[in-house]
Design a protein that fits this description.
alpha+beta; PH-domain like; Arc Repressor Mutant, subunit A; eight-stranded antiparallel β-sheet; 43% strand; elongated
Length: 288
């Protein structure tokens, strides 16, 4: 948010303040008007006047796409908290607004990152390093000081958690994101920083598919294959690793692809765990 101020999005839409000085506002009324987003602020203009939200003061962001119309008369909106106030903003050009908002809030920021913090379900002895953020609505990139570049595809995110951990001697809020790397291995990347950094990144990576683990009646063979893939074993090495015939493993692959646990990368036969499959595999490991 440094440099000269520039307009990112100029659109129309609806907006409302739902919390003022820490108290819920009664008799909410959505106002229609003009919504301007710059690299420094959001300006909301209606017949009742003008409101300005400084992006540097935003401490929490929630993205509500496909909102329930019983709750809000809009199809999607952003919830922004500034101190003890909360505003809901529903721009007409919601995709352009989303792109610009995430970019303005955290793109280019430097944050502490630990990667991989967990690999194949095993905690790693990895230290915290500085990482520069590169964000768009579909991906978070982290250029780490050690030279590696971490890519987190939003659609590939299998789990998101925010917790408190000791970071270089002090308690910090830490965002923990489960995803995969190029070879399909499940990893966790941990990111910390300011309250705003953690809240905005949580909002962005939480937009992926629903990661609820449904109760599936898995066979022993399916459990073994899932655990092997989750641990980073190559699909081509699965038969030998689990002690099954190639044909049996192929049949298990077919069943798991059909249930949405695996995705097929190319025919005969490479597969990778989807977010749902990684959640199921981790549950299997915990239950053992």
């Amino acid at each position: 948010m440094s440099g000269e101020e520039r307009t990112l999005v100029d659109t129309t839409g609806k907006f409302v303040q739902v919390v003022r000085d820490g108290r819920k506002v009664a008799d909410l009324e959505w106002l229609s008007g003009r919504i301007l987003l710059s690299n420094r602020r959001i300006v909301l203009v209606s017949e009742e006047g003008k409101r300005t939200i400084a992006l540097s003061q935003v401490s929490s962001l929630k993205n509500r796409r496909d909102a329930d119309n019983a709750i809000a008369p809009v199809s999607g909106y952003f919830s922004l908290q500034v101190d003890a106030d909360v505003h809901l903003v529903a721009p007409s050009a919601i995709d352009d607004f989303e792109d610009g908002l995430y970019d303005a809030l955290v793109d280019g920021e430097v944050v502490p990152v630990k990667h991989p913090a967990v690999e194949g379900g095993v905690v790693q002895d990895t230290g915290w390093e500085k990482g520069r953020l590169s964000v768009d609505p579909d991906e978070v990139g982290l250029g780490v000081a050690s030279g590696q570049f971490v890519e987190i595809e939003v659609a590939d995110v299998g789990g998101v958690d925010v917790t408190e951990r000791a970071v270089k001697g002090s308690k910090r809020r830490v965002l923990e994101v489960e995803h995969t790397v190029a070879d399909g291995t499940s990893v966790e990347t941990h990111v910390t920083g300011s309250t705003r950094h953690v809240a905005v990144l949580e909002s962005l990576v939480s937009k992926g598919p629903s990661n609820d683990v449904e109760d599936l009646d898995l066979t022993d063979a399916e459990r073994q294959v899932l655990m092997a893939l989750y641990s980073g074993v190559s699909p081509f090495e699965i038969p030998e690793f689990v002690g099954m015939d190639v044909a049996e493993v192929e049949e298990v692959f077919d069943q798991l692809v059909e249930t949405g646990v695996l995705s097929e990368k190319r025919v005969r036969r490479e597969v990778r765990l989807k977010a749902r499959g990684r959640n199921i595999a981790s549950e299997v490991i915990v239950d053992q």
